[in-house]
Amino acid sequence: MEKQRFLFLGHQDLSGILRGRSVPEERREMALAHGLPWVPGNYSIGPTNVIPADNPFGQQGEIRLLPDQAAMLALPAYGGKPAFDVVLCEARRHDGAPWPYCPRAALKSAIGRLEAEAGLTMKVGFEHEFSVKGLNQVAHAAYSVASGRAISVLADNVLQTLAGSGIRLEQFQAEYGTDQFEISSIPADPLTAADRVVLTQEAIRDGARQLGLHASFIPKPAANVAGNGVHIHFSLYRGGQPVTAAQDWLTDTSAPFVQGILDHSESVVPFTCLSANSYLRLRPNSWVGAYVCAGLRNREAMIRVVPRAPDANGGNPQASLEYRASDGTANVYLALAALIGAGLDGLRQRKTPQNIAVNPQTLGEQERQRLGLRLLPQSLPEALQAFDAKAASAWLGADIIEAYFSCRREDVRQFCNNASDEEAANALQRIY
Ligand code: GLU
Ligand code: MG
Fold it and tell me: Coil, helix or strand for 345?
């Protein structure tokens, strides 16, 4: 008998995990057209399947997951398991009205504000770093042919799966850390790019399982090993023309946008670094961008300014800005919406950043103070203290903030107060 081809309707929840339910083939058309009912409280399920006691949803209510067929991934049959298509959904009320907790809707509205208020559009590309267990390499030589070959079977699998769904990738490499690899995606508009992050991560995890491997985006697998970042490269356009950089630095548009992200970094980082483990990665001297600053080609700056090739008119059409303090545990929709919200606020304030081209850690404390350089929060509890709920509510809506931070407080309880960093990393790398 032919195996089923299941269709999974899902959404990335407040812990950055893709959850949903599946239908058999005969229900496929119905589900694609009308979506499926879903439980609001499921939005708050954490990485160990605990729903925080103070979640705003309780046991009541029902919403609807409405699929967007532009965000679809066909996972192939393997090892006796049937083919499994995944389609990403937006959560709405049954009458079709917006549901104020939906991260994908929050990103859509942030994109709308960027366009309406500032006349800007954005393109976003991602570099996904991840660790792979089970490769059995004799040695991991960073960026080498040997380690590139070791990952090439998985890369081929992922490339083919994604290509089958119209998603192309830019490149892959054996990264610096042992059994650490990177796959980067081609830039797209923020919503498409965010959908592709969710689907790419699932394709990587699923491809690894097909090959008897385990791939994880855990931000800091262990102390003293390289962290896994998911760097966000973005560029800005006005009327379709690039306005990210001129010559070798920011423009009148991008400079205040970047300053807004720097000023609000404590309110952005809880969305780009979701998990308790995320904050163990944010250390100086690890190319993470742990210091709040922007710097030309500087991998120790939170925002690296990456001008590629200046053109004859003084423009820099290939330039991008790389936000480095982000990782693969994030709900990518909220992460991008927060970046856009902070950037838009910067455009209102009209302040501009200085270029920090050195590694801030090599400067003395006094010099750092003179330059106004501060470290990002070094733990999840510290991040929750430093966070400005009012600013973030303006970007994402007060409902999302309330639900999101009830999840993070539960994370603190489980992974900071009741587990060692090592225990937490071990638990979280099974999920992320
Ligand atoms: N692994 C580093 C991180 O945690 C980034 C290294 C790189 O520049 O690619 O973000
Ligand atoms: Mg990298």
Answer: helix
